[in-house]
Design brief:
Elements lengths: L10 H13 L7 H18 L7 H10 L6 H7 L4 H11 L3 H15 L12
Length: 123
């Protein structure tokens, strides 16, 4: 499957992609949490895009998996992400732990389908 971060050439495109994936997640979160998580997911997408680090969707997923032990801003900074994207992710890190976990869960749900193995070809 093509890495969707490869087509990101601006924060606006990252934002549009984040909104789309959050809304189309197999187990979507309530609208309030979609609204809250989309900007952070957009920052992760932009940081992973060719416009920034070029690390791709696997890096986004790994950053979300590691979010329990390592904050998102630190992951972005260590990857060499743009300072503005790192700052935006720091806003998530500063939330109440329960709110932070809810946002991270919403972002994981949006990203999970992109990392599932493709269906085998039917002959």
């Amino acid at each position: 499957m093509t890495d969707p971060t490869n087509v990101i050439d601006s924060y606006e495109r990252a934002s549009a992609m984040a909104w789309a994936l959050i809304r189309l997640a197999p187990e979507p979160t309530p609208a309030f949490w979609q609204e809250m998580s989309a900007p952070a997911l957009a920052a992760l997408f932009y940081a992973a895009s060719p416009q920034d680090t070029g690390r791709g969707m696997n890096w986004v997923y790994q950053a979300l998996l590691d979010a329990d032990e390592r904050n998102l801003a630190a992951a972005a900074s260590a990857a060499g992400a743009d300072a503005e994207m790192t700052r935006r992710l720091g806003l998530v890190d500063d939330l109440d732990p329960d709110q932070r976990q809810t946002l991270i869960a919403a972002m994981r749900r949006a990203v999970d389908p992109w990392l599932q193995p493709a269906h085998p070809k039917v002959s």
